[in-house]
Amino acid sequence: MTTEELIKRNTILQRSLTKENASAYEIVLTYVRGSNVSEQATEETLLEIIEHLITGEKCRRFIRARFKTI
Fold first, then answer.
1. What are the two backbone dihedrals, phi and then psi, of residue 17, each rounded to the nearest 5 degrees?
2. 51 and 21 in contact (C-beta within 8 Å)?
């Protein structure tokens, strides 16, 4: 993916995060974008992080649906 495509993908995925995870991701996003690495590497890292957050959210929803106690 090009850097521009990564940025668009990250933006789209960010909209699907829970409020709590979106806040945490904003902090990470600011830190990572402020680091001294290429823009391409930055956006690839952010994509990996946001994909992990989304996976975690889905797992948590699955667990809540199964056990209704979490």
1. -70, 155
2. no
Is pTM beyond 0.90 here? no
d(CA 66, CA 68): 6
> Alpha-carbon distance 31 to 11, whole Å?
16
pLDDT tens for 45-59 read: 999 999 999 998 888
Burial of 7-22, coded b for 16+ CB within 10 Å and e otherwise, reads bebbeebbeebeeebe
User: Which tokens go with 27?
Assistant: 């902090």
pLDDT, tens digit, for every residue of 20-30? Answer: 888 889 999 99
